[in-house]
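Two quick folds needed for the group meeting slides. Do the first one here.
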Amino acid sequence: MFQSLRWIGLVVLLGIASVGCSNGTSVKTVKVAGSVTLDGQPLADAEVHFIGPKHAGFGKTDSEGKFKLVTGAEPGENKIFFRQAGDEKFNNLAEGLDAGQAEAAAAAVRNSNAKVVKKSIPPEYTSSGTTKLVFNVPDGGSDSATFSLDSVKK
């Protein structure tokens, strides 16, 4: 009898400890999909990054410029930037991602059959520090996040 009481006590203590060890860093994410064009043409084979206050979302465009964020996005205002193969920063994909995000990003790259657009993404759209693009992600997510980039200054 005392043996079973010990096990019950141990289970209760472990349950309390696991609740107490939670650091409250869980961030709600929602699904986001959309499309990207550069000078009116679909932007193929480009990374799409959504940067919220507590979460970084990532996706990759297909040959039609359409994307779905693999890691979702945090509801609210997100900074948006893009990277493309050949861009110096493209090769350092895992920087700033946790292990799950890096694996999801690698899977998206492996599963892509997209062709690379010949035009380069203008520098003002290629980092979280330079981009002025923002997207307000609704609490329920979005399937219409559309971005039209211009390489020519107007």
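Then this one, please, same format:
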Amino acid sequence: MTGAARHEVDLERLLQGDRQEFGKMVQAESPRLFRVMARMLGDEDEAESVMQEAFLQAYRRLETFRGEASFTTWLYAIAINLARASLRSRKRLSTYAEEDIERMQPAFVDGAYTESFEAWDPSKTAEREQRREIVHEAIDRLPPDYRTIVILRDIEELSTAEAAAILDITEGAARVRLHRARNALRSILDAYFK
């Protein structure tokens, strides 16, 4: 966050359970965390509910924060785990399975790319808002792990290290997951943008 909207939070006071500091942190992190939750869940009401539960769990579990990552990384990990649980309970039928993602990866023979690649021609799409909606719908159809890495890296523009820490995976695993997700998105979106 930038400018006047950012509130400096005293981490020491926060970790001691100071409600005022916790309130500052909630105010500072809510806009971005809400965007991440809304993108993951595709439902603003559910996103708000999950975000509130994440803040509540974080406050109740302050003593478990070990400082191995930043406080916000720890908070986002809690929120993302809650969002994943929510998605599992919904059992979204419209998401792609892992096998579908595998079929969407580029084909190579003897180390050479075997498919012809044509650049997308955005002029074929009626207007910019439609393109954005199509892309977001495609992201929403990805399996939760792939959707989450795309949201964190490409929409929220977190670093690979930050995304990996939030997801509790290695940076290498985050890079692989992001690469596979982007290839799947390219495959999904080719029909719209070729």
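Slide caption for protein two: The beta strands are 108-109, 112-113.
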